[in-house]
Design a protein that fits this description.
- The protein has a five-stranded parallel sheet, sandwiched between helices.
- The chain is mainly α.
- Strand 4, helix 4 and strand 5 form a beta-alpha-beta unit.
Length: about 550
Amino acid sequence: MSDSIQIADKKILIIDDQKPFQVMLKGLLSQLGARDVTAVGSGEAGIAAHNRDAYDILLVDYNLGRGKNGRQVLEEMKVRELLRPNGLFFIITGESTRPMVLSAIELQPDDYLMKPFSIGVLRSRLKRSFQKRHSLHRVYQTLFEKDYDACIHECIEHVDENGRYRNYCRQLLCELYLKKGQLNQAEETINELLREQRFSWGVLALAKIKYAQSDFSTSVELCHEVIRSTPNAVEAYDVLARSLQGDEQPVKALEAGRKAVTLAPFSITRQLYMSELARDGEQFELAKQAMQNVLDISRKSVYRNPRHLCNYIRSILDAAEQCESKLEINKYHQEASLALQRARSDESLFGGKLDYPQLENAVMARIEAFNGRYRQAQVHLNIVAKEFIESNAEINKDIAPDVAIAFLDIGEFERANTLIRKQKSDKQLDRYNTQMLDRRVKGKESQQQAYSEHNKKGISLYTEGDFGAAISEFEKALELAPMNSGVALNYIQAALKILGTSDEPLKYLVEGCKGCLRVLDGLTLPAKHKERLTTLKSEFENLQAQT
């Protein structure tokens, strides 16, 4: 077979921040017959160039200085669907560290070139990739169009014809069947392959199928088989971790997750799952580290999002709340403040999409509430949740989980529950925050239930005219929810009934009313509560004036 390749009519883009390498690579391509070669010096410039005028071949260096790296360029082009179905994407690098190599390869570029390479290596790699794209052009086209039924048909046809890339088509078939939920077809396809030869990737595909079928123990066994033959099989550790979690083996699941992150640490999905496993195992420092990795990875990637900063800060506060040492708690709180300050100085990262003053107040509300400084916590909540408290208006989705937690901690259970229900119904919560809020609600369950029982009993006793007993119940409710505006108003209303008919000053009730008024002073309140407060405060002041 001829070693010649036809690239004279191909548009080629080189993305490399080193001018000498650009010149050298242009020379090699020219010797191979290339006529249309463009070179840019950054990942951002490369994405913009390709978006304006799609290229047939992209040769991208992994390390691109201060901007996006080659992995992030490939990731963004895939997410934004900028790559053409007949185009080639090569990653080039002079580094060979295992985490970097594995993290790049798992995004499946067409090929991976190690510097330095010869013109012969470049020719053979281009030829190999062109042949595959040409032979499977209908497969790639239908996959690009997301016409999965047509893609399945093309793959089956290639396998039936005993085509050169039949194993690739079997692997793709399995993935497509899994995507469509057709597990029996996926299993039949892979078992047919494994009867011919026990390929590791085939065994891994079967492990994925077994996991999808909730056959966790079999999936675990298959993953171990893959790992024994291919110790660096990152995805095998991913599937193993999820299967062990499904099989209710959290400690081993965490070990598998840590191994996957160690092998290939630059995946946001993998780091998020690591944080989930760590949190479930009450390894809050480890969960925090994973969330910090998510933030760092996302900074220059297509997945850049204010949510990652918020979740990182939440993971710090979660870690603080599990500490018994005041020194450790303060250290974590300082770390959260420092993380927020650093992010604010780099605000351009989020393009103005994050309201930092609101986030700061939400974070401070949590810190103050956790430390028992409920009045200070409420001051911060008044700033970030004023419209929500007054009229149930929307709260910024980036800070809503922290506002809900602060409400729970100061005893405003009704508002917390309303906000959490709203976030869930509007599907604003990712998995991390859903689990965090569920855990917090469960942790406050007994306190909230006791508060609710005392408050309801107090209201019932008040209705029956037993104001003294009602006050006793409201006092118990206030001990459990010291900043709850509703029960504070209930206490004042019941106390006024006794004070208004008593000939004695009843100092304890007067002081109790004053304490409740201090709680309510300056608070943002719903319209009905505000009206009640005005009326009750006026009645109390009149009684005081009379005595």
